[in-house]
Amino acid sequence: MDAKLIDGIGHRYYKLSLWVIVGLSLLALLLIGCSPYWGSDVLNAILISAAFSFLTSIAYEAAWKGIAKNSPSTLTKFYLAAPALRMMAAVLVILVYYVLNRHAVQGDGTSAIRRMMLVFTSIFLTYYISMLVLDCVYFAQVEKRNKLH
Q1: How confident is the model at residue 37 (pLDDT cuts 50, 70, 90)?
Q2: Of 23, 2, 8, the residue nearest 134 (C-alpha)
C-alpha cells in the first residue's frame, strides 16, 4: 500500500474523530444546559473528555500511519495494544480527576465528590465508548476494503 493512500485514510480518521468529538460536545452542552445539575463540574467533565478524546485520536492516527507505512504485518498487534493503552490512560485520567477533587464540598458543606465523580465518569465514558466504536468500525472497514496485510 502506498504512503499517499495511508495518509488519506489517516486524514479521514482524523476528520471523523473530530466530528464525533464536536458532535458529542455540542449534544452534551445542549442536553445538560437545561438541567438543574449544570455547573462548572459538568463543563469541566465535557472539556476534559473532549481533550482526552482529541489527544488520543491524534496519537492513534499517528501511530497507525507509522505502523501501516513501516510494518503493516504488525497492525493486528497494534489493534490489540492501542485500545489497552487508551484504557489505561482513561483510568489514569479518572483517578487524577478524583484525587484533585476529593475534598470538594457543596454549598451546604456536604461532600460533593460522589456526584462529581458520577457526572464526570458518565460523560467521560460516553466519549470513550464513542471513540472506541469509531476506531473499531472505521479500521475494520479500512482493513476489509484495502487488505493492508
Answers
A1: low
A2: 23
